[in-house]
Amino acid sequence: MATATLTIPEPVVEIKFGQVGIAQLKLKRLDPDGLTAELAEKMATAENLFLRTPLVLDLSHLSTLPDIDTVRDLLARIRSAGMMPVGLSYGTSENDALARALDVPIFAKFRVAPERAPIERAPAAPSPPPRAAPRPPAREPASTPAPAPAPASTPVPASGTGIGMMHNKPVRSGQQIYARGRDLTLTALISHGAEVIADGSIHIYGALRGRALAGAQGDETARIFCREFHAELISIAGQYRVFEDIPAELRGHSIQAWLEGGRLMIARLDAGKS
Amino acid sequence: MTETIVVTSGKGGVGKTTTSASLAVGLAQRGKKVAVIDFDVGLRNLDLIMGCERRVVYDFVNVIHDECTLKQALIKDKRIETLYVLAASQTRDKDALSKEGVERVLDELVKSNFDYVICDSPAGIEKGAALAMYFADRAIVVVNPEVSSVRDSDRILGLLASKTRRAELGKGGVEQHLLLTRYNPGRVANGDMMGINDVKEILGIEVIGVIPESPGVLTASNAGVPVILDTESDAGQAYADAVARLCGEQRPLRFIQAQKKGLLARLFGS
After folding, report:
1. Does the beta-carbon distance from A169 to B161 stay under 8 Å?
2. pTM of the complete model
3. Residue A189: exposure state from Cβ atoms within 10 A (0-12, 13-18, ≥19)
4. Which of A150, A170, A184, B42 yields a CA-CA distance of 20 to 30 A from B215?
């Protein structure tokens, strides 16, 4: 492609989800003294292996979940044996509550999600696909959540037609347009403070001054095309970028945005013609 | 046929009431029968600008609550035969208005063969503003050339496109016009103020008038004489142009170029 790719300055923070080796301590029965004795024995046989090793405490093999004080005691015993408990594993909802009370994490592989009441697959929580972990921008961490809020007020036409949704009027400040399960084409301007959201790609033939969120349900192949770029925020499949200042190379130009290896890329469509 | 025009803006203090008064006078001067209604219940000002504050006996809320007839509450203007003012109540709040009540009053004005009903909206997007725009056929969005006013106007334009009777009935929404007020060509030329084209581009609708920032506006307001009656002032003339455009005439925009300094002014440097 003849378009010049503009690299986006790297944010300060990068969060990656990956597998790291970590010891799991399965407690087969509640016997604190037995635990202390066995851990001391292990430490004596292989001190290099066990000293300061991080481990996750797995309480799932106990018939009843111990109370918070008992668990505190267990953690203290593990710690005094020389190992470093960093959290709990295996999530039941009680276990999750226990972890919250202790202010330690539940390890992701065993999160409580399967046990919870099924979360409705609404656009309210467009889940980014597991591989594309959200990368919080350095500048405004709290003020702009990546997933689009549910556009409750927008009348959504019946979904699943497979044909893109067409919107021919200006989208004004405070309005939201959502194309469920399809592409969204907009022929007029999108003002500051307006939001256009689609599960597929977004095509904008007017000026984009508000926000555009494509791939709202996590479709990483979705793209955003825009004839006149002044956006406040764009997002594809949860990867987003806030434009506090629009780079001069992009401002007012026609652009497209897409995901490449989990990174949000923006390029001018009219490169060379400036 | 009666045409209902709402004068609205979102933001306060941009010149809605000044505009309502001048448009009403301008249309009435052309022989149209005009009623101008103050929807700003609790903060009534229109009567002051129109110079009829001492003649308010009954008001809009009284009519809505059947405490008087519409005829009793309409204040006939002393200058122009065909112009009437319906004042807001100062002692009540916006909750005193109801959709049914407003509709009934507007229907009665239609039956009384008014050509135009001008609804002077309060600031904000709450009940008073919502009711002022709900029954409108046309909207004049008053905007100052500065960013917060432009953004609020954008919000109002969105509401006009969705929260009005015409929009709900699928009649294609309300016809929208932009009226720039407090325009200072000198500051625009210096880059201190947004220009007409900036505002037009952001809001994407046509401009029906540009009213220059003018000392005449304040003088007129304080005197209770709508500024359009001051034919000497640039603001008055600009309002007359806007009224002409509202009636379908083509007129070029005036007072939008910075005044060149005269030779004397340049020599003495002020």
Report:
1. yes
2. 0.65
3. buried
4. B42
The three-state secondary structure class of B27 is helix
Residue B151 and residue A194: Cβ atoms within 8 Å?
A: no
Domains detected in chain A: 23-107 (3.30.70.260), 164-268 (2.160.20.70)
The pair of three-digit structure tokens given for residue B15, joined into one six-digit string: 């010149």
Identify which has the larger pLDDT, A67 or B68: B68
Contacts of A171 in chain B (CB under 8 A): 158
B208 φ/ψ angles, rounded to the nearest 5 degrees: -95, -10
Nearest chain B CA: its distance from A191 CA (Å): 7
pLDDT tens-digit series, residues A1-26: 445 556 667 778 877 766 667 788 88
Residues of B in contact with A170 (CB under 8 A): 157-158, 161, 204
* Average pLDDT score, chain A: 78
Q: Which residues contact A48 (CB under 8 A, 6 or more apart)?
A: none
The length of chain B in residues reads: 270
Whether the CB-CB separation of B129 and B6 falls below 8 Å is answered with no
Burial B137-162 (b: 16+ CB within 10 A, else e): bbbbbbbbbeeebbbbbbbbbbbbbe
Lowest mean pLDDT among A113-117, A159-163, A169-173, B198-202: A113-117
For residues B239-261, give the mean pLDDT.
91
Closest CB to A191: pick one of B154, B159, B162.
B154
Select the residue of A172, A188, A189 nearest B155 (Cβ to Cβ): A172
